[in-house]
RNA sequence: GCCGAGGUGGCGGAACUGGCAUACGCGUCGGUCUCAAAAACCGAUUUCCUCACGGAUAUGAGGGUUCAACUCCCUCCCUCGGCACCA
């Protein structure tokens, strides 16, 4: 085994890991804010073992931190654990290990793995969200939200996962199934706590515009999720009743074409409306049937439209016509007002429904290209057009009419302009144990109140029984539930729900600045100096949930003066997944690549290098063990290069005449410095930066072999090349770089040295190879001095024998010269 | 259906602002070393024709603009991700 190693990574790696810790390379004083750079990786949930896919995130972050360090920044790179959550509790129910024990065990395993990867952090700032010193402040934020009316409790239909035995936020339901375990989600009516994120909908949407350094796709996903639409809320008078019915529409221009009204089966007016109608029992039965189709069934696929007439009518305010009220299964209670004005001619869903129940279709927007006929149209016309059958609005374009009719409605008080969002309030109650207890107390005399600040944290009792009941285990802990009312000191009960773990993770990045502070969640002044985060790195799977919640909580903290900024993350980078055998790595698929064996056989630097070289980091990439071996061989070549380098006689004196070979190598060195620096500054182009260094290594190896064969003046440039290679590689492969740096005779850590800058004069090519095309096809190449005149170049090209074979006997129509790039002759 | 990203050798992928397509790595083939093998090193490698020189051909498909197109424009196909009866 020993001889098979290309270099002694197994001794080098622990040596430098220990060195970095002892030197406190990553430990910083946040009071020193000059030249600060906050490099943040999304903190992980502590699962049992990391695979190479997880590693990508940490490796990228580590490269950025080390590179910025070498660029002279005061880098804050902290790490922590998002350590409340369901898996630990489910494991406790199954295996009987307390969540706290298994979580803390997993944390220490993960820390060991991170350390093995050579990924370093300021561990003095570690934040663990399941410990009281942290969740005390999560509870404190809850209290602040409650005080501002942004945390409230209501009875609501909620998403219930029968397998996890808990409720889920809308964001955690994926295709009608639980985000975590993929079990189909059902609906349950429960009293739940919510955060009023909808109060911030407009700002969360508008401020996406400020996030210029975020990936477009993340912003689009958030915008779609918030789902803003502007329209008019119309008050329809119900015929024969002293009530109105509100309908939201974005197409008020189609009001004259409304031929029926449709209500969601859950609409609160339904029972009143059908009272006394012809077949009350039959109608009620039909409605009941629609209600029983769960929300999920309704949203899964386009199910057949169904509906029933209520026997009632509303009056269309614009023309006083009677319009029938129907109940329809395609109307959602939780969007808009749960009732719509249906315009079959101009909305496909209404059209389908009208066809099925033979309801009238009236064209009110005509297609300017081809006039519409209500009787023969096959589908709704949803485009813009010209107003018809719309009284005084006839002849206007629909866009103009939209505004005019909206104004007319407000003037006549038929309705008002409003904005609707798809975003729902954030359901944060969980009937589970392993989360931060919601700090509320219920007193029979004094009512609902928050736990006073001085009594925080509300500690999670350690001794509980884990049962798969679907009810919070806290309910059965008498010492926990029974408490005193903070006001009247009489007997009172605690809230037994805990908070969604996304609450924990929506403020942790603030805690890292002053992680030990115990009288406040964080120091506002220091936080204002360090945030917004300069670079946030994490998975695309958090595009909506975590990133939206964090933005919301930051805006809230900004509003109450706790922070001085309203967006937490300036630059966001979302890395792609590492795929194996065409699928995301997961234990159940059995395609997990563990870093342990790879690190044992090839070393951490190989795993790091391959992970970075595999492809553009924002894209998914297929893992290949063979590919990883290629990275190992490369490191072996670099190692040998450093070992076999000729004794440096000192650099060639500047200005001294050097050979062409030496000059070529020097040019390559400086071109590579330029390329790597630009790749790291301009984006996260690690893969191309590494291939540029590989090219330099190849050229340097050739130059060294040539120098060994026929010694010349190359030693000085070779030394410069080797030193540059080691520095340029260091952020990617820090252990081997430190070792080689040391063997080059350097004393300090390589990360204390300055990142090289390139010499503009050295990268200038003085001889150029100019491709020559004839009629756009490459026919020859000419070598010319870079300062050649255009005339001289033309002369040379025309003298070129290869070119001549292609142009002889033909007339030159055009002679295109792109200076320093290419020549193209057009002949006929 | 809507929104977003993408489609380049056997594979992962390069290519600036329209200017030598296929860098770098993997794999494969050949060679060196070895009794032999592995490892390592050196060389070849879009495809087709050619002993060779060389030529033709190719960036999902088709068309267009241009002296010149992976890059710009139009039409279409496919893959991945998100949202989805949102009025």
Helix percent reads 25-40%
> What is the count of helical runs?
26
* Rg result: 35 Å
Assembly type? single chain
- Uncertain segments are none
How is the main sheet built? 7 strands, mixed
How many beta-strand elements? 34
Approximate shape: globular
Structural class of the secondary elements? alpha+beta
Distance between the termini: 67 Å
Query: β content, as a range?
Result: 15-25%
Mean pLDDT rating: 88
Record the SSE blueprint.
Layout: H1 9-23, E1 36-41, H2 52-70, E2 74-76, E3 80-81, H3 86-95, H4 99-116, E4 127-128, H5 132-147, E5 151-161, E6 166-168, E7 173-174, E8 177-178, E9 186-195, H6 201-206, H7 216-226, E10 228-238, E11 244-249, E12 260-263, H8 270-274, H9 280-292, H10 295-300, E13 307-315, E14 322-328, E15 339-342, H11 348-356, E16 365-366, E17 386-387, H12 398-412, E18 415-421, E19 426-427, E20 429-430, E21 440-443, E22 447-450, H13 478-481, E23 482-484, E24 491-494, E25 498-499, H14 501-504, H15 508-511, H16 524-530, E26 535-539, H17 545-559, E27 572-575, E28 578-580, E29 583-584, H18 595-602, H19 604-613, E30 621-622, H20 625-643, H21 660-681, H22 686-709, H23 715-729, H24 734-743, E31 767-774, E32 777-785, H25 790-799, H26 801-807, E33 812-818, E34 822-827
Parallel strand pairs: 1-2, 1-26, 3-4, 12-14, 26-27, 28-30, 31-34
Antiparallel strand pairs: 5-6, 5-9, 7-8, 9-19, 10-11, 10-13, 10-18, 12-15, 13-14, 16-17, 20-25, 21-22, 21-24, 23-24, 28-29, 31-32, 33-34
Helix pairs in contact: 1-24, 2-19, 3-4, 18-19, 19-20, 20-22, 21-22, 21-23, 22-23, 23-24
The protein binds one RNA strand of 87 nucleotides through helix 7, strand 11, strand 15, helix 11 and strand 30.
């Amino acid at each position: 085994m020993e001889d098979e190693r290309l270099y002694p990574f197994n001794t080098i790696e622990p040596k430098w890991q220990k060195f970095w810790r002892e030197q406190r390379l990553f430990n910083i004083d946040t009071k020193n804010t000059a030249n600060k750079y906050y490099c943040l990786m999304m903190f992980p949930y502590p699962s049992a073992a990391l695979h190479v896919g997880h590693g990508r995130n940490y490796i990228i972050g580590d490269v950025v931190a080390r590179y910025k360090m070498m660029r002279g920044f005061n880098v804050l790179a902290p790490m922590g654990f998002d350590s409340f959550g369901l898996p630990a509790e489910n494991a406790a129910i199954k295996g009987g290990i307390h969540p706290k024990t298994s979580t803390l065990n997993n944390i220490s395993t993960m820390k060991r793995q991170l350390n093995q990867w050579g990924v370093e952090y300021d561990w003095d700032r570690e934040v663990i969200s399941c410990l009281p010193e942290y969740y005390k402040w999560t509870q404190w934020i809850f209290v602040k939200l409650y005080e501002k009316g942004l945390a409230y409790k209501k009875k609501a239909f909620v998403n219930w996962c029968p397998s996890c035995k808990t409720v889920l936020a809308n964001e955690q339901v994926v295709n009608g199934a639980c985000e975590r375990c993929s079990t189909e989600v059902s609906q349950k009516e429960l009293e739940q706590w919510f955060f009023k994120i909808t109060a911030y909908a407009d700002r969360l949407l508008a401020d996406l515009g400020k996030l210029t350094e975020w990936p477009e796709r993340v912003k689009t996903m958030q915008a779609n999720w918030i789902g803003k639409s502007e329209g008019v809320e119309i008050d329809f008078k119900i015929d024969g009743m002293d009530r109105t019915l509100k309908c939201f529409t974005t197409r008020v221009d189609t009001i004259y074409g409304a031929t029926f009204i449709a209500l969601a089966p859950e609409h609160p007016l339904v029972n009143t409306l059908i009272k006394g109608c012809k077949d009350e029992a039959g109608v009620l039965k039909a409605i009941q049937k629609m209600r029983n189709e769960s929300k999920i069934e309704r949203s899964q696929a386009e199910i057949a439209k169904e509906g029933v007439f209520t026997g009632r009518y509303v009056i269309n305010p614009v023309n006083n016509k009677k319009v029938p009220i129907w109940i329809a299964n395609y109307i959602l209670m939780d969007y808009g007002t749960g009732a719509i004005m249906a315009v079959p001619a101009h909305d496909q869903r209404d059209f389908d429904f009208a066809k099925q129940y033979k309801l009238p279709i009236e064209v009110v927007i005509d297609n300017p290209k081809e006039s519409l006929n209500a009787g023969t149209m096959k589908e709704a016309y949803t485009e813009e057009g010209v107003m018809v059958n719309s009284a005084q609005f006839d002849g206007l374009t629909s866009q103009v009419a939209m505004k005019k009719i909206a104004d007319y409605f407000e003037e006549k008080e038929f309705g008002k302009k409003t904005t609707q969002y798809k975003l729902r309030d954030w359901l944060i109650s969980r009937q589970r144990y392993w989360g931060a207890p919601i700090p509320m107390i219920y007193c029979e005399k004094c009512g609902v109140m928050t736990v006073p600040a001085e009594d925080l944290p509300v500690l999670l009792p350690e001794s509980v029984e884990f049962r798969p009941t679907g009810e919070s285990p806290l309910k059965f802990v008498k010492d926990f539930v029974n408490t005193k009312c903070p006001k009247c000191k009489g007997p009172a009960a605690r809230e037994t729900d805990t908070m969604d773990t996304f609450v924990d993770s929506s403020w942790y990045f603030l805690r890292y600045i002053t992680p030990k502070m115990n009288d406040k969640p964080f120091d506002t002044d220091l936080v204002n100096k360090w945030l917004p985060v300069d670079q946030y790195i994490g998975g695309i799977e958090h595009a909506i949930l975590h990133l939206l919640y964090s933005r919301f909580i930051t805006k809230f903290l900004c509003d109450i003066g706790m922070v001085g900024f309203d967006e937490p993350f300036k630059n966001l980078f979302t890395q792609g997944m590492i795929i194996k055998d065409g699928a995301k790595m997961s234990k159940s698929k059995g395609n997990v690549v563990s870093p342990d064996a790879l690190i044992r056989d090839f070393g951490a630097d190989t795993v790091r290098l391959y992970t970075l070289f595999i492809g553009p980091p924002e894209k998914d990439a297929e893992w290949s063990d063979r590919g990883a071996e290629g990275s190992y061989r490369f490191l072996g070549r670099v190692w040998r290069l450093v070992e076999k380098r000729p004794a440096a006689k000192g650099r060639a004196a500047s200005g001294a005449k050097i050979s062409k070979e030496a000059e070529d190598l020097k040019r390559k060195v400086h071109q590579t410095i330029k390329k790597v620096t630009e790749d790291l500054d301009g984006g996260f182009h690690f893969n191309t930066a590494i291939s540029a260094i590989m090219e330099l290594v190849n050229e340097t190896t050739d130059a060294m072999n040539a120098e060994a064969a026929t010694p010349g003046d190359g030693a000085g440039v070779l030394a410069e090349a080797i030193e540059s290679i080691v520095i340029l590689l260091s952020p990617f492969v820090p252990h081997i770089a430190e070792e080689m740096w040391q063997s080059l005779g350097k004393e300090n850590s390589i990360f204390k040295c300055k990142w090289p800058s390139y010499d503009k004069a050295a990268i200038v090519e003085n001889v150029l190879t100019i491709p020559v095309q004839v009629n756009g096809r490459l026919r020859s190449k000419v070598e010319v001095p870079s300062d050649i005149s255009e005339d001289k170049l033309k002369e040379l090209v025309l003298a070129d024998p290869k070119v001549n074979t292609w142009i002889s006997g033909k007339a030159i129509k055009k002679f295109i010269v792109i200076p320093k790039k290419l020549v193209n002759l057009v002949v006929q």
